[in-house]
Design a protein that fits this description.
Distance between the termini: 9 Å
Helix content: 25-40%
Strand content: 25-35%
Shape: globular
Largest sheet: 7 strands, mixed
Structural class: alpha+beta
Order of helices and strands: HEEHEEEEHEEEEEEHHHH
Amino acid sequence: MVLLATLSLAILAFTTAQQGDILLIDGKKYSIHTNPLEGFLVKNPERRPHGSVMSSANWRGYIATWEIRDGQLLLKDVEVLVGKDQSSRLEYPGSSYGYRSVLSEVFPERSAIVADWFSGHIIVPTGKLTHYVHMGYASTYDRYLILKVRGGAVLQRWETNEAAFKKFRDSQFAAFKKTPEYQSALTEATSGDDPLNPEDAEEFIREFYSELYMSRLFDEPK
């Protein structure tokens, strides 16, 4: 997978905390720090949904709802942000905008949608917010559920506390630093008209690309 945006676009985009997709699991609903639909949309750009309202808290332009059922990751819905008159549900009571389902537009030929294109970790914050970061999915929580998925099948799931999660995150970032993607991002961040020093550049990349490197399965062949 290539980087989803350059650093120059990153400063305009993900430097706002992002609204996560929704995951239904064990009878509960969570906001997740992984975007499983992106891999499909990168390969099928003509399917990328677009709403009529832009939010700085949702630069990918949609909210996908997922469910874990019978050991599989299922896509239940894809919604885009639109004006109140076009919406099927409001963002909040009295809001001037809301969401409209576009699932049939993204997957017109399929009804039961197993996310067979997705292999990676799904990061599910399940506890209290402990440290807010105004960028992407870089905020941290005191409890997490992590799912390991390959080809849409859930292979493993484990619960962890904040300390253990940070070790997992550090390990994932260390692996990411060995990739050409990281080197490209570092070069861009430390050059140009307003370069960052190497330490600040590394911290920016660590926060901005958290969804990308935490979701990846570095210990398995691509």
